[in-house]
Design goal:
heterotrimer; A mainly alpha (about 375); B alpha/beta (about 500); C mainly alpha (about 325); A: 16 helices; C: about 325 residues; two-stranded antiparallel ribbon; globular; ABC_transp_permease (chain C)
C-alpha cells in the first residue's frame, strides 16, 4: 500500500461500512438469483412481505430473531475475550437437554412461577457446561478453542442422537424425541401474555423467551461495560500480557467467559424447546449457532447491533419461507446463501471497503487540511 | 572513489507517520559504513527499503552507479544486496542447509541443488570463519550461531552490499568481536558493509564512515576518523546529552524489599536468574545495570509476580515469598508494590482502551472504579482527569484510546497510575525508552520526588547515563548473575562496563 | 475363525471406501495449513465438489468432465478463501465458516434451480460414473488361498478415485519434503518473514497451496457423488471435511500420519456399521454413537495434550503483514 490510509471516522466505521458490506452481500446474491432466471427485486419484495407484512409474519420474524439474539450474544461475549466460540450449535443443543432435565425433574413438583426460572436456568447451565470445557482446555491445556468447539458440536449431536433415540425416547415413538415437557415449565406465548393487556396480536410461536432475550441483551451490556468481570474480559481480549501484568487471572477469565458464552447459547433452548416445541427434538438448533457468528460480526459485538442483525436474520429466515410459495426455482435455502455472503463480506472481508471508503471520505470531509493535500 | 550504493531523496510514510524524509546516502565500495540513530529514528525502515521489504513513496536508489527499481527482496538479492535482519529470518524447524537453500534451491527438486548449496555453504563458512554445522536444526543453535547462518544466507548469492541491522544487540561482547572480525574480512574482499546500530562504541571501533539519523531524517555524514562520540551523540539526539539531574543525597531508612538467593528457571529449564541477593531501603533508588538480555526482564517480572521464582526468597514489605508460594501480580500489587513495566505497549497499557480505563488497569477492583458492584464512570472519568492534570498528560482527554497518545504521554499515563497508588516499593523498567526530552526530565523528577517521600525504588534501564544519574546504589547483572553492587558515588563508566562484561566487583575496583 | 477373518477383510475394504474422501481432504488440509492458512472450509469445498461433479456428469454424461469441474469448483472456493484471508487479511476461521455456509446454500439453491428435485441431482447411469476397476488376474489369483481373497476384495475392485486418493498421500509427502515448492510451503507456514526476505512471494505461495487443496477437495467431492454414490443429495458431505481436519491435527500436520488417522477414523465407522446391534462378548451391545463420536473424542484428547503433543505450523492463522 503506497498511499497512506487516513483513519475512518467513527460514524462511517459503525454505520456506513456495515451497510456497504451488507449491500455487497445482497448484491452478489441478487446476481445469483438473476442467473437462476428470477427477479431479485421481486424476491426481495416477497421476503419483506413475508417477514413483516403478512398476518403473523412479524411474530415469526421475532421468534427467529430471539434465537439469533442468543447465539449472537454467545459469540460476541467470547469475541470480547478474543475467543472464537464456534460451538454455539452444540451448546444450544445441550441447553435443550438441560431444559428438558430440569423440566422432567422439577416441573411436576413446582408451580410455573418457580418452575420456569429453574428450567431456564437449566438451559443456561447446561449450555455453559458445554462451553466451559473447551474454555478450560484452551486456558489450561492450550487446545485451540476453534477446533475444540467444532468437535464439541459433533459430540453434542452424537450425545443427543443417543439420548433421544435411547434413554430419553418417548415410549411408543418412532422418531427420536422426548415426551412432552412438564406443563409448568413451558413458556407462555406472547399473544397470550399480551391479550389480557388489551393488545391483540396474531398467535405465533413468539413466546416469553423473546423477553428473556431482551433481558439477556441488557445483562450482556452491563456485564461487558459496567462490571469488573467485563473489564477483565475485555482486558484479556485486547492484551493478555497487559491483563496478566494488571493482576487479572487470564485463564480464569477465559474459562468464565466461555461458561457464560455457552450459557447464552444454551438459552436458545428456552425459545425452541420451552417456548415452541415443548419437547426436545433432533436438530432443533438448525444452524442458529453458526449464524450467531454472522450476527455478532454484523452487530459489532454490541447488544444494539446484535439486536438489529438478529432482526435482519430473523426476517430473512421468515421471509425466506415465503419464497417456497411464490417461486418455482428459488426456495428458503436462498437464505443460507445470503447468510454465507453476509459472513463473508461483514466478517472475512470486513475491511475490504475500508481503504477506498476512507480515502473518499477524507477527500470530501477534510479538503481544508493543507498537510493532507 | 567508487560508490556501491546511493540513495537520493528517499521518503516513506506509514499512515500519517513519516518514517523517512528525503534521505540521501552514499556508501563507498569496500568500506564499513555505519548508520547510527536512536530507537525509532527510521534506520530499520530505510534498510528495509534498500532491501525491497518496503517500497519508498518517492526517491531513487542507485546501485553500482545505475538507477534500479527494487520492488521486492528478490530484486534486491538480484542486485547483490544481502541483509541480516534484527529479528532473524530463520525457520527453526529446518536445518541450516535448508535455511540457506530457501529461495535458491537450484531446481524443482531439492535434490538437484542440495550438493551445490552445501558446497557453497562450506566454502563461505571456511572463507569467513563462519563455523556452523550445516545439518543441525536451527532450533538447536544459539544466538551467535544463528547469526552466522543469517550472514551465510545474506552472502550466498555473492552479495556486494551487506546490511546488518543491530547485529550486536543479542550478542555477548566476545561474539560481537568475532562478528567484527568477519566484517573486516568482508570489507577487505570488496564488500560494502552497512552497519545499523545505536551504540556509539561500535561505530567508533569498526566503521570507516558514518551517517547519523534523527527522527526520520539524515542529519549528517562523517568520516569516523574525523568525528568523536560526543559529536555523534549530539547529532543523534539533537540536544546536550549529559543528563543533569539535581539529586540530593539519599536518606535511606528501613529495608522495604529484599531478595535472598533468588533464582529463576524458565519453562525450557534454562537458569535465567542465579543466586541474586540485594536489598532496597525506603528512600533510595537501587539501579540495575547490564547489557540488554542479561536477566533484567526476568528479574523485574519475577519481582512483580508475573513469573514464579524457582528458588530463594523475597521479602516484600515484611511478607516472605518463596518458590512454594504461587504468587501472581495481584498478590504482589496488593502488598504495596508498584510496577512501571519495561514495555508499556505489551504490558503497561491496553492500547485499544480509553485513557480512563488504562488509568484504572490493575486497580479496577478498588475504589477508583467506584464503590458499588458496577463501574462508576463518573468516578473513573474524574480519577483520570485528576491524574492527567497532575502528571501533565497531553491531550488531557480521558476518552481517547491509549494508542493515540505519543510515547511520552503513554508513559505518563502508566506512571500516573502507578505513582498515585503511593506504593511502598516501586519497580521501574526503562522509564524513558522512546520518550521525548521534556517527558524524560519530568519523569526523572517524579522518580526522585517519590524517593524522597520514602519509597523504595528498583530501577532497571539499559541507558547507563540514566542509571548513573538517578541511582544511589547500582547492581550489575551479567548472565543472570549479580556481579556486584556498588555505591553510585564510586561508579564510573569504565568500572560499570567491566562489571557488565562479567568481572567481579573486587577485580574491577 | 475364517468367517471372522473374512468379515475383518470386508471391514478393511469398507474402511478404504470410507477413508477415501477423508484422505483427499486431509491432504488438502495439509497443503493449506502447512502454508499457514487455517482451513475449516474443507467441508464446504468437499460439498461444492460433490454437487458440481454430479451436476456436470448429469448434464454432459461424462464422469471425467464432472471430475474436472468438481476440481475447478474446489479451486474456486479456495480462491474465495484466499481472497478473503490472503489478499484482504481477513479472519481465516470466519472466512472458512462463510464458505461452509455458502456451499450449503449454493448447492441446494443451484440444485433446485437446475434440476427441480428438491436439491438432489438426477441418478447417474452406471456408465456416467467412476465404476469399480477389476484388476488383472483376479480370477486367476482366486485359486491362491488368503492372498487371492485379499487381492480380490481389498486391492482390486475399487473405483479409480480410491487409487487416486491412495496415490495422493505419498505424492503429498514427496512434494512437501522433497520439492522446492514443499520447502517453501513448509517455510511459509513457520516463518513467512523468512520466505519474504528470501525474495519469494508469500501471497502467491499461499494461493498455490490453497489451489492444490481446492483441487484435492474437488476430487473428494466427485468421489462422493459420482463414484461411491450415483447422485448428489443435500449436505452429502455430512461432516467429512471436519473429520478430515481432525485427521490432519491427529496426524500432526504430516501426510503419512494423517493418512493413518484417516484409516483409523474410517475403520471406526466401518466397524460401527458392521457391528450395529451385535452383542460382543465382554462389551455387550456396541454403543454406535460412541464409536461414531470417537474421532472427535480422540482429537479433543490429543489437543488437550493427553495423547502426545500436537505441534501446529507456527504461523498458522496469522495474516502476513510486511
Amino acid at each position: 500500500m503506497s498511499t497512506p490510509t487516513p483513519p475512518l471516522p467513527r460514524w462511517a466505521d459503525l454505520i456506513l461500512l456495515p451497510i456497504i458490506n451488507l449491500f455487497a452481500a445482497f448484491f452478489i446474491c441478487g446476481l445469483i438469483v438473476l442467473a437462476i432466471g428470477e427477479n431479485p427485486i421481486e424476491a426481495m419484495g416477497v421476503m419483506i412481505k413475508g417477514a413483516f407484512v403478512y398476518s403473523g409474519g412479524l411474530g415469526y420474524t421475532l421468534f427467529y430473531t430471539t434465537n439469533y439474539i442468543f447465539t449472537g450474544l454467545a459469540v460476541a461475549l467470547a469475541f470480547h475475550c478474543m475467543m472464537f466460540n464456534i460451538g454455539g450449535e452444540g451448546q444450544a443443543l445441550i441447553g435443550g437437554l438441560g431444559a428438558a432435565l430440569a423440566s422432567f425433574g422439577i416441573g411436576l413438583y413446582l408451580p410455573a412461577p418457580l418452575a420456569i426460572p429453574l428450567a431456564v436456568l437449566g438451559a443456561f447451565i447446561a449450555g455453559g457446561i458445554w462451553g466451559v470445557i473447551p474454555g478450560y482446555l484452551q486456558a489450561k491445556r492450550g487446545s485451540h478453542i476453534v477446533i475444540t468447539t467444532i468437535m464439541f458440536n459433533f459430540l453434542a449431536a452424537s450425545l443427543m442422537v443417543y439420548l433421544l433415540a435411547g434413554p430419553m425416547l418417548e415410549a411408543g415413538q418412532q422418531s427420536p424425541q422426548t415426551a412432552k415437557l412438564a406443563e409448568s415449565t413451558l413458556l407462555p406465548k406472547m399473544a397470550d401474555i399480551l391479550s389480557p393487556l388489551g393488545f391483540d396480536i396474531a398467535s405465533t410461536p413468539l413466546n416469553a423467551s423473546f423477553l428473556i432475550a431482551l433481558g439477556a441483551m441488557a445483562v450482556f451490556y452491563v456485564l461487558v461495560w459496567h462490571t469488573r468481570l467485563g473489564f477483565n474480559i475485555r482486558s484479556v481480549g485486547q492484551n493478555q500480557e497487559a491483563a496478566h501484568y494488571a493482576g487479572i487471572n487470564v485463564a480464569r477469565t477465559i474459562i468464565i467467559t466461555m461458561a457464560i458464552s455457552g450459557g447464552f447459547a444454551g438459552l436458545l433452548a428456552t425459545n425452541e424447546i420451552l417456548g415452541f416445541n415443548h419437547k426436545v427434538v433432533l436438530n432443533f438448533t438448525a444452524g442458529y449457532g453458526f449464524t450467531g457468528i454472522a450476527v455478532a460480526l454484523m452487530g459489532r459485538n454490541h447488544p444494539i447491533g446484535i439486536f438489529l442483525a438478529a432482526l435482519l436474520f430473523g426476517a430473512l429466515t421468515q421471509g425466506g419461507g415465503e419464497l417456497d410459495f411464490e417461486f418455482q426455482s428459488i426456495t428458503r435455502e436462498m437464505v443460507l446463501l445470503i447468510q454465507g455472503m453476509i459472513i463473508l463480506f461483514s466478517g472475512a472481508l470486513a475491511y475490504m471497503f475500508n481503504p477506498p471508503l476512507a480515502r473518499m471520505i477524507a477527500k470530501f470531509v477534510a479538503p481544508k487540511d493543507p498537510a493532507n493535500g | 572513489m567508487n560508490t556501491a550504493l546511493e540513495l537520493k531523496n528517499v521518503s516513506k510514510s506509514f499512515g500519517l507517520v513519516k518514517a523517512n524524509k528525503n534521505i540521501n546516502l552514499a556508501v563507498e565500495a569496500g568500506s564499513i559504513h555505519g548508520i547510527i540513530g536512536e530507537n525509532g529514528a527510521g534506520k530499520s525502515t530505510l534498510m528495509n527499503i534498500i532491501y525491497g521489504m518496503h517500497r519508498a513513496d518517492s526517491g531513487e536508489i542507485h546501485f553500482g552507479g545505475q538507477k534500479v527499481d527494487v520492488r521486492s527482496s528478490a530484486d534486491a538479492i538480484e542486485h547483490g544486496i544481502g541483509m541480516v535482519h534484527q529479528h532473524f529470518m530463520l525457520v527453526p524447524t529446518f536445518t541450516v542447509l535448508e535455511n540457506v537453500m530457501l529461495g535458491t534451491e537450484g531446481g524443482l527438486m531439492l535434490r538437484d541443488g542440495r550438493g551445490a548449496a552445501l558446497e557453497r555453504l562450506l566454502h563461505l563458512s571456511e572463507t569467513y570463519n563462519l563455523q556452523v554445522n550445516p545439518h543441525a536444526l536451527v532450533s538447536d543453535l544459539n544466538v551467535g550461531q544463528r547469526q552466522r547462518v543469517e550472514i551465510i544466507k545474506a552472502l550466498k548469492g555473492g552479495a556486494k552490499v551487506l546490511i546488518l541491522d543491530e547485529p550486536t544487540g543479542v550478542l555477548t561482547p566476545q561474539e560481537a568481536d568475532q562478528l567484527f572480525e568477519i566484517l573486516k574480512v568482508l570489507r577487505d574482499d570488496g564488500v560494502s558493509v552497512l552497519l545499523i546500530t545505536h551504540k556509539l562504541s561500535e561505530i567508533m571501533d569498526i566503521t570507516d564512515t558514518v551517517s547519523i539519523m534523527r527522527q526520520g531524517e539524515m542529519v549528517g555524514h562523517r568520516k569516523t576518523s574525523e568525528t568523536s562520540p560526543q559529536e555523534l551523540a549530539e547529532l543523534m539526539v539533537g540536544r546536550e546529552v549529559l543528563l543533569e539531574v539535581d539529586r540530593k543525597p539519599a536518606t535511606p531508612a528501613e529495608v522495604r524489599f529484599s531478595a535472598t538467593n533468588l533464582g529463576y528457571t524458565n519453562a525450557q529449564g534454562v537458569l535465567e536468574l542465579d543466586d541474586i541477593n540485594f536489598e532496597v531501603r525506603a528512600g533510595e533508588i537501587l539501579g540495575v545495570a547490564g547489557v540488554s538480555g542479561n536477566g533484567q526482564t526476568q528479574l523485574m517480572e519475577t519481582l512483580a509476580g508475573m513469573r514464579h521464582l524457582t528458588s530463594g526468597s523475597l521479602n516484600i514489605l515484611g511478607t516472605e515469598v518463596t518458590a512454594a508460594d504461587q504468587t501472581d501480580p495481584r498478590i504482589i500489587r496488593d502488598l504495596g508494590v508498584g510496577h512501571i513495566p519495561e514495555d508499556r505497549h505489551t504490558h503497561g497499557l491496553v492500547l485499544n482502551f480509553e485513557a480512563r480505563e488504562n488509568m484504572i488497569l490493575g486497580f479496577h477492583d478498588t475504589e477508583l472504579a467506584g464503590s458499588g458492584t458496577l463501574f462508576d464512570y463518573k468516578a473513573i472519568q474524574q480519577n483520570c482527569e485528576d491524574k492527567m492534570a497532575h502528571y501533565d498528560v497531553r491531550p488531557a482527554n480521558p476518552r481517547l484510546n491509549a494508542k493515540n497518545f505519543s510515547g511520552g504521554n503513554q508513559q505518563k499515563i502508566v506512571i500516573a497510575r502507578e505513582f498515585s497508588a503511593n506504593p511502598g516499593v516501586l519497580l521501574v523498567g526503562q522509564p524513558t525508552r522512546g520518550v521525548d526530552v521534556g517527558a524524560i526530565e519530568f519523569i526523572h523528577k517524579q522518580l526522585l520526588e517519590l524517593r524522597d517521600a520514602g519509597c523504595a525504588i528498583l530501577l532497571v534501564s539499559v541507558e547507563l547515563d540514566e542509571i548513573m544519574s538517578l541511582s544511589d546504589r547500582i547492581m550489575v547483572l551479567c548472565g543472570g548473575q549479580n556481579v556486584g553492587i556498588i555505591d553510585s558515588a564510586d561508579a564510573d563508566r569504565q568500572t560499570l562496563g567491566l562489571m557488565m562484561a562479567g568481572q567481579r566487583q573486587e577485580a574491577a575496583a | 475363525m475364517a468367517d471372522f477373518l473374512y468379515q475383518l477383510l470386508l471391514s478393511f475394504d469398507a474402511t478404504l471406501r470410507i477413508a477415501t474422501p477423508l484422505m483427499l481432504c486431509a491432504m488438502a488440509g495439509i497443503f493449506s495449513e502447512r502454508s499457514g492458512i487455517v482451513d475449516i472450509s474443507l467441508e464446504g469445498k468437499l460439498l461444492s465438489g460433490a454437487f458440481v461433479a454430479a451436476a456436470v456428469a448429469a448434464v454432459t454424461g461424462s464422469a471425467w468432465l464432472g471430475l474436472g469441474c468438481a476440481m475447478l469448483a474446489g479451486i474456486f472456493m479456495s480462491l474465495i478463501h484466499g481472497f478473503a484471508c490472503i489478499t484482504h487479511k481477513g479472519d481465516q476461521v470466519v472466512s472458512g465458516v462463510a464458505i461452509n455456509i455458502l456451499a450449503s446454500g449454493l448447492t441446494i439453491v443451484l440444485g433446485i434451480a437446475l434440476f427441480k428435485r428438491g436439491g438432489q441431482t438426477p441418478s447417474l447411469p452406471r456408465d456416467d460414473r467412476f465404476t469399480p476397476i477389476e484388476w488383472w488376474g483376479v480370477d486367476m489369483m482366486d485359486s491362491v488361498p488368503v492372498i487371492g481373497t485379499i487381492y480380490r476384495q481389498l486391492i482390486s475392485g475399487h473405483n479409480m478415485l480410491v487409487y487416486v486418493a491412495l496415490l495422493a498421500v505419498p505424492l503429498t509427502a514427496f512434494i512437501l519434503y522433497r520439492s522446492r515448492f514443499g520447502l517453501r510451503l513448509r517455510a511459509v507456514g513457520e516463518v513467512p518473514e523468512a520466505v519474504d526476505s528470501a525474495g519469494i512471494s508469500v501471497t502467491w505461495l499461499r494461493y498455490r497451496a490453497l489451489i492444490v487443496g481446492g483441487a484435492l477437495c474437488g476430487i473428494a467431492g466427485a468421489y462422493l457423488s459420482i463414484a461411491q454414490g450415483g447422485n448428489f443429495v443435500r449436505e452429502m458431505s455430512a461432516g467429512k471435511g471436519y473429520i478430515a481436519l481432525a485427521a490432519v491435527i491427529f496426524g500432526n500436520w504430516k501426510p503419512l500420519s494423517a493418512f493413518m488417522a484417516c484409516l483409523m477414523f474410517g475403520f471406526l465407522e466401518a466397524a460401527t456399521t458392521r457391528l450395529e446391534g451385535v452383542d460382543l462378548p465382554l462389551i455387550g451391545e456396541v454403543p454406535t454413537q460412541l464409536m461414531l463420536a470417537m474421532p472427535y473424542v480422540l482429537t479433543v484428547l490429543l489437543l488437550a495434550g493427553f495423547i502426545g503433543k500436537p505441534r501446529p505450523p507456527a504461523a498458522i492463522g496469522k495474516p502476513y503483514h510486511k
